[in-house]
Amino acid sequence: MALPVADARIRRYRWDVKYEYKSPDCVKKLVITINGQSPGPTIRAQQGETIIVELTNNLLTENVAIHWHGIRQKGTPWFDGTEGVTQCPIVPGTTFKYQFVVDRSGTYLYHAHYGMQREAGLYGSIHVSLPDGEKEPFTYDYDRNIILTDWYHKSTYEHAVGLDSIPFQWVGEPDSLLIHGKGRFNCSKLTTASLDAGICNATNPVCSNYTLTVVSGKTYRLRISSLTALSALSFQIEDHNMTIVEADGFFVEPVVVQNLFIYSGETYSVLIKADQEPSRNYWATTSIVSRDSSTPPGLAVFNYYPNHPRRSPPTDPPTGPAWDDVAPRKAQSNALRARHGFFHPPPPLHDRMIVFLNTQNLVKGRTRWSVNNVSFTLPDTPYLIALKENLTDTFDQTPPPDGYDFLNYDIYKQQDNQNGTSRNGIYRLDFNSTVDIILQNANSMQRNKSETHPWHLHGHDFWVLGYGDGKFDMYNDPKKYNLVDPVLKNTVPVHPYGWTALRFQADNPGVWLFHCHIESHFFMGMGVVFEEGIEQVGKLPSSIMGCGETLGRHSP
Ligand SMILES: O=C1O[C@H]([C@@H](O)CO)C(O)=C1O
């Protein structure tokens, strides 16, 4: 008997989420795994299919929630997985069922969205293939996938407590860079006591370099994503060029690069031809840019079959670009264009423009990040539930400001008054309106320092209309927007002392977080929330309830 059609279009996963001791970079540490793995299993589906993930929280003493990064959750805003925004956390010992449609092909991610759990290893990839009969506008022989991360030996708790302490204790630079969950920490940097305890074991085979095996003459589509906690990265493969063809799920005009700059939350596909001398292996490396970091590069082996995958390349690993050379990073941002034949042109005009000044502030003595001097805090009751069930006393009803003091604020200076406030108000957007967002970077609380922030929007893609230096000029800069072939993305950097202009349509009923994807920066308040079309949101599943004011107010 043939299966009912509906069943054939469903992909089911059962995930056991727990802490396990692992040694991703040779140093033994508690890692959050899914079915024993970090990175977790790749979700593979075809456009239009339904994904069901039944997740059991076996973390014993910790809540969890999983965000499906890049999936818009049309019709299922309650399954966006953003704790405090779209759902209550999943408590230990319980099973939560996520169910949503992957409505567009491309490369996406999933990761924890509770506390700072992402950096403990709870993440993976989602690959959505095109519908039958449709083809990518490029060809390749094999499809491969790597996720780049940075890695700390301290626990997420130590980080969170330090960030929330007075005096502030910054998380510092990562201990290692991982390529698809693998790295090699230099054990001689640890004290003998930790070596004796077997904490760092460089001969442990689980912490060998990641290997990417290729056959000479073949072309590889390499899907490269970053889910770093902090770092902006450059990725390069010795002696091999890469052609960028996809960014955040959309096809782009091919751009040939020697190194790919990638920010936390971004996904790319690059084409690589194995066209070098095949009798040896080559290094693939990641290195930190945009911060003056002491973290050594992450290494992987680009292995030409049939050379032994563990055979070290005969050369020194490529070092990558200088961390403070911003020009090539801006050049890559500006070079990306929507692929011809795959344009989704933006609406020519906007209905509302919101300027987000990114600053570091002090709030009641704590170091925080803010948008227009408001540092974000999550309410006890998730916004989606609060709005749908009219629990309006659960968060600040005054919306945060649409801009800052353009005339008087000097973005190049440390501010005389560094104080800001913490609030949990939200931006309410008119349904179907076209919204322009200007991310305006500024000096941090340290002199002559402006950081790079990768901003990620939930529930939408946005057109990237342009990037610029200095203070955004509301009258002249919009004249330079690319309204012809801007890329659609869900994550975008704002470069130091610069601005980035985005446009999106508020056409997805729900409540959506927009935040810096640096895990500690969001923890420190660098985010905002948008509501649109709440009245069109269907009945909320009772599984997302169970915290704050939702307790006892909702019938199952
Ligand atoms: O949020 C941050 O705090 C530190 C620094 O600004 C203060 O120590 C840093 O580099 C960040 O990105």
Task: List its salient traits.
6-stranded mixed β-sheet, 3 domains, mainly beta, Immunoglobulin-like, binds ascorbic acid, 6 helices, 556 residues, globular
Percentage of residues in strands: 35-45%
Backbone CA Rg: 23 Å
Largest sheet composition? 6 strands, mixed
Side by side, the strands of the main sheet go 10-9-12-17-14-15
N/C terminus separation: 36 Å
Low-confidence stretches: none
Could you describe the 3D structure shown?
Residues 307-330 are annotated as: Disordered. Keywords: Copper, Disulfide bond, Glycoprotein, Metal-binding, Oxidoreductase, Repeat, Secreted. Residues 17-129, 146-305, 414-533 form the Plastocyanin-like domain. There is one protein chain. This protein is mostly beta strands. The chain has three domains: 1-134, Immunoglobulin-like, CATH 2.60.40.420; 136-337, Immunoglobulin-like (Sandwich); 352-550, Cupredoxins -  blue copper proteins (Immunoglobulin-like, Sandwich). It has helices at 5-8, 156-163, 192-196, 327-335, 383-388, 519-523, and strands spanning 10-22, 29-34, 43-46, 50-57, 66-69, 95-101, 106-112, 123-129, 142-151, 176-179, 210-214, 219-226, 232-237, 242-247, 250-257, 259-262, 267-273, 282-289, 298-304, 352-363, 366-371, 374-376, 421-423, 427-429, 434-440, 453-457, 462-469, 488-489, 491-494, 498-505, 510-516, 527-532. The protein has a six-stranded mixed β-sheet, with no helix packed on it. A six-stranded mixed β-sheet has the order 21-20-25-30-27-28. Strands 11-19-18-13-16 form a five-stranded mixed β-sheet, with no helix packed on it. The radius of gyration is 23 Å and the shape is globular. Ascorbic acid (ASC) binds next to loops.
